[in-house]
Amino acid sequence: MSSALVRNPGDGTTFRYHTNVIEQVVSNAETSGLISVTRQIARPDQAPPLHTHSREDESWIILSGRVRFWVGSTSFDECEVYEAEPGAFVWGPRSVPHSYQAITSTAELLIICNPGAIEGYFHEAGAADSRSDASYSLMEEYGFVIHGNPPPVPQTY
To answer: pTM of this prediction?
Structure first.
């Protein structure tokens, strides 16, 4: 590989994480551990629980749809809330609690984690019909701290 990498949508490998198919745009191995980038189509019922990463920063680029972000507290009621639209960039530094949820029927996101070792969690967790306590245990192995359930699915979107 040269010092640059160009990967168009659909060129990366795909894997299942819970009910979602995710494209691995750039892998941890390809960047010598610097970053991992995935592309996903998120739905309102696929939001992660409110959590904190202890080992990496996480960034999102919203490609389509709208996404709500909760940031800054271990309680949804006390978080700052932001809505991001297509073209938005969101940065979540390590050790800052956060969650996000598509608030349109779908939203396409690029998710960037640096360093990139956390991608191992998503591959290990793999496909499942829903999130489970076993997945939460695996999250903790990768330095996640879970603060509660995912946000409720909105009635309309």
So the answer is: 0.88
Please state the φ and ψ torsions of residue 33, each to the nearest 5 degrees: 85, 0
The one-letter amino acid code at 86 reads P
Q: Under a CB-based contact definition with an 8 Å cutoff, are residues 76 and 70 in contact?
A: yes
Residue 153 CA, distance from chain mean position: 17
CB distance 122 to 92 below 8 Å: no
Which helix (H) or strand (E) segment is 37 a member of? strand 36-42
The pairs formed by 83-87 with CB atoms below 8 angstroms and a separation of 24 or more are 84/60, 86/62, 87/62
DSSP secondary-structure letter at 15?
Answer: E
Average pLDDT, whole number, for the chain? 90
At 92 the pLDDT is 94
The overall longest dimension of the chain from CA atoms, in Å, is: 48
In this prediction, residue 124 has a pLDDT band, given cuts at 50, 70 and 90, of confident
| pLDDT band at residue 133 under the 50/70/90 scheme | low
CB 90 within 8 A of CB 36: no
CB burial of residue 105 (10 Å; 0-12, 13-18, 19+): exposed
